[in-house]
Amino acid sequence: MATDIIMPALSPTMTEGALARWVKAEGDAVAIGDVLAEIETDKATMEVEAIESGILGRILVPEGTQDIAVNTPIAILVAEGEAVPDAAASAPAAAQPATTTEEPAAQPSAVPATPAAASLSAPEPEKDWGPTAEITVREALHDAMQAELRRDPDVFLIGEEVAEYQGAYKISQGLLAEFGDKRVIDMPITEHGFTGMAVGAALTGLKPIVEFMTMNFSMQAIDHIINSAAKTLYMSGGQMGCPIVFRGPNGAAARVGAQHSQCYGSWYAHVPGLKVVAPWSSADAKGLLRAAIRDPNPVIVLENEILYGRKFPCPVDEDFILPIGKAKVEREGRDVTIVTFSIMVTTALEAAEALAQEGIEAEVINLRSLRPLDTATIVESVKKTSRLVTLEEGWPFAGIGAEVAMQVIEHAFDWLDAPPARVTGVDVPMPFAANLEKLALPQPEHVVEAVRRLI
Amino acid sequence: MAAAQENTARVGGNGPSLTREQFMDAFHEMLLIRRFEEKAGQLYGMGLIGGFCHLYIGQEAVVVGIQMTLKDGDKLITSYRDHGQMLAAGMTPRGVMAELTGRATGYSHGKGGSMHMFSREKNFYGGHGIVGAQVALGIGLAFANKYRETDEVSVAYFGDGAANQGQVYESFNLAALHKLPCLFIIENNLYGMGTSVERASASHELWRNGEPWGIPGKRVDGMDIAAVHEAAAEAVAHCRAGKGPYLLEMMTYRYRGHSMSDPAKYRKREEVDQVRKTRDPIEHVRQILLDAGVSEDSLRKIEDDVKATVNDSAEFAQTSPEPDPAELYTDVLLEA
């Protein structure tokens, strides 16, 4: 049977090309793989190979022809002894451009609204977990891992110095003794490799907790966090979930300079397929880490080294857990909403205390979760206070504050009495000198000033 | 000689060999991959497959020979040149081709494409577009085998190009350190995109690249299915016995460009023709079967079957609907 040889698409972007040269002539026998012609694309000159064998019955497009659209018949291939049909008869049978043979393409209007555009429901009140005890954030994180390691044999902890050394920051103290080296596993200094390994294990359904000595070192492994962990569920059409936790201290510690002092909140919160939490208190740390370990998705837990030793009340209930995606109003107020997370909650509360001395009542929202973001709680608060200040340790450009402000603009613009303001770390790499480091980080007085400017 | 005996008798000359039955199966599998890939190239030319599309033509003996040594539960992972691996793993030509054309009936509902396909059912873990990432992920699959105390093995395929990635050596170290049941396969087709292996690697014996970690390795003629099978059987047995990882360098060749838009000017056409004429893995098996007394007719029947399967997959891939617009927002996160 005669078949058309069509002008092939030879690159992802090619729509037309030139027929540089016919290598075969009319009447030539053609075997699979033989070069028929040379085609010039926008990128290069390519050889077109035969995909079926036969006789080159007729050349429809002479060499030297420019601007031949992809899918135009350029020759007719016939079987041996077969008559060559007329070009005119052949043309209607030619393959049509892909766009016309496919199902009607989705029109922009047919695209469903993004979840973000859905109307916000009022925030639910937080569950009361009863009696509390004062514990450090370090103990809270430890207790969360211990409880989940006991609860689920598929959970294991890997990282540098997590086992025999008992944790670089002593978060995993005692876990090796209780769970053994099968489930509390020291890793060599090889973040790219062991993160990939943990993600591979998670794709089979195991539930690794990957401890980075600091989140700065997660940069060595960010390809696996984003390209392998966050995207595989989507790329597999829902077949391959990745239940994994990446945790470690984030942001500035003290006097460790530029490469060890950076907030990755905005980096990771940017990525669909990841959840990102940033606990402040012991209750946040315990409740959110337990939720992160149980979550069937990759979750980034941004801890803070300075907070590790701080004590906060934490519910003693054995089942205590917090939902990911719910912010907490740490202090109520009517005049301004301060939205922040992690160690900056302390700074915000100090600022609120100072503002109260001046008769300004600030509401302080501890985000707890950066993705998903609890926009409902933020918007509810701004509708009451009509003013927004965001506060974060990270850099200003494309930071979490920018996203929070945009959410408020989208959902509560008419309630605002002043433009939103942001207080952030200074837009420089972290300096080492004590005085410069302090200048680079937000202080309570910066927040107080920002609020004063709005009122 | 009775027919039953004939079917189990080893054929194929002096070297490592397989039974006639195994050669017949291999012929079918390899031909399926070849014809499928030719069809994919054809659909690409028609604009029905878009984006990147990396064909496996020429390398068929590698994946088919290795697959013959595996058992249910063994896990597979590879790079973006993944169509052959998927077909060998038992994924359906229809599902793979429909994913290539971006249709709802594809393995990833049209959201993965040529480079990103998976099958939980067939233990195929992708299909990865980042060169070398599958090696670290692959030792994770092996880690899971060990953690669950099974005797399952994981196979991580990568090319000579990926063999220069740092994470490959991090993975060698971790796999050896933890004695992970991971079979590393370097498919050395001589070119990482347009750069020949000599211009890319100071090591010219890639099979020895695991030596610092004590990983045993071998170089294998990847165009000879029996040689592939023999080496893989030994390597898989090593991994399954809990002796840790194993590295095989398969010397192979891709007939087509790196991707569809590669004019392949970095090598001479005569080089490609020479391999095709003298080392083609499928023609090699065809000759073995003919020499063993298999009739031309029975081979033609296999060819016809394969052609029908491939045409069916192409028809399916062209007539299946595109994904529903609502599919855009699904599978980002699982319900907690």
TrEMBL record, chain A:
Class in the EC hierarchy, top level: oxidoreductase
Highest taxon, organism lineage: Bacteria
GO molecular function terms attached to this record: pyruvate dehydrogenase (acetyl-transferring) activity
GO biological process: pyruvate decarboxylation to acetyl-CoA
Name the record gives this protein: Pyruvate dehydrogenase E1 component subunit beta
Alphabetical list of Pfam families matching this protein: Biotin_lipoyl, Transket_pyr, Transketolase_C
Source lineage: Bacteria, Pseudomonadati, Pseudomonadota, Alphaproteobacteria, Acetobacterales
Catalysed conversion reaction: N(6)-[(R)-lipoyl]-L-lysyl-[protein] + pyruvate + H(+) = N(6)-[(R)-S(8)-acetyldihydrolipoyl]-L-lysyl-[protein] + CO2
Complexes and interactors: Heterodimer of an alpha and a beta chain.
Function: The pyruvate dehydrogenase complex catalyzes the overall conversion of pyruvate to acetyl-CoA and CO(2). It contains multiple copies of three enzymatic components: pyruvate dehydrogenase (E1), dihydrolipoamide acetyltransferase (E2) and lipoamide dehydrogenase (E3). The pyruvate dehydrogenase complex catalyzes the overall conversion of pyruvate to acetyl-CoA and CO2.
EC number: 1.2.4.1
Listed Low complexity bias regions: 89-123
Segments forming domain Lipoyl-binding: 2-78
UniProt cofactor(s): thiamine diphosphate; (R)-lipoate
Region Disordered: start-end pairs: 89-131
Keywords: Lipoyl, Oxidoreductase, Pyruvate, Thiamine pyrophosphate
Entry-linked InterPro entries: 2-oxoA_DH_lipoyl-BS, Biotin_lipoyl, PDHB_mito-type, Single_hybrid_motif, THDP-binding, Transketo_C/PFOR_II, Transketolase-like_Pyr-bd, Transketolase_C
From TrEMBL, chain B:
Enzyme's top EC category: oxidoreductase
GO biological process: pyruvate decarboxylation to acetyl-CoA
Catalysed reactions listed for this entry: N(6)-[(R)-lipoyl]-L-lysyl-[protein] + pyruvate + H(+) = N(6)-[(R)-S(8)-acetyldihydrolipoyl]-L-lysyl-[protein] + CO2
Alphabetized CDD domains for the sequence: TPP_E1_PDC_ADC_BCADC
Location of the Dehydrogenase E1 component domain: 29-325
Domain of life: Bacteria
Pfam families on file: E1_dh
GO molecular-function term, one example from the UniProt record: pyruvate dehydrogenase (acetyl-transferring) activity
InterPro entries attached to this UniProt entry: DH_E1, PDH_E1_Alpha_Subunit, Pyrv_DH_E1_asu_subgrp-y, THDP-binding
Free-text function comment from the UniProt entry: The pyruvate dehydrogenase complex catalyzes the overall conversion of pyruvate to acetyl-CoA and CO(2). It contains multiple copies of three enzymatic components: pyruvate dehydrogenase (E1), dihydrolipoamide acetyltransferase (E2) and lipoamide dehydrogenase (E3).
NCBIfam families reported for this sequence: PDH_E1_alph_y
Keyword annotations: Oxidoreductase, Pyruvate, Thiamine pyrophosphate
EC number: 1.2.4.1
PANTHER family for this protein: PYRUVATE DEHYDROGENASE E1 COMPONENT SUBUNIT ALPHA, PYRUVATE DEHYDROGENASE E1 COMPONENT, ALPHA SUBUNIT BACTERIAL AND ORGANELLAR
Protein name: Pyruvate dehydrogenase E1 component subunit alpha
Origin species: Acetobacter cerevisiae
Cofactor(s) needed by this chain: thiamine diphosphate
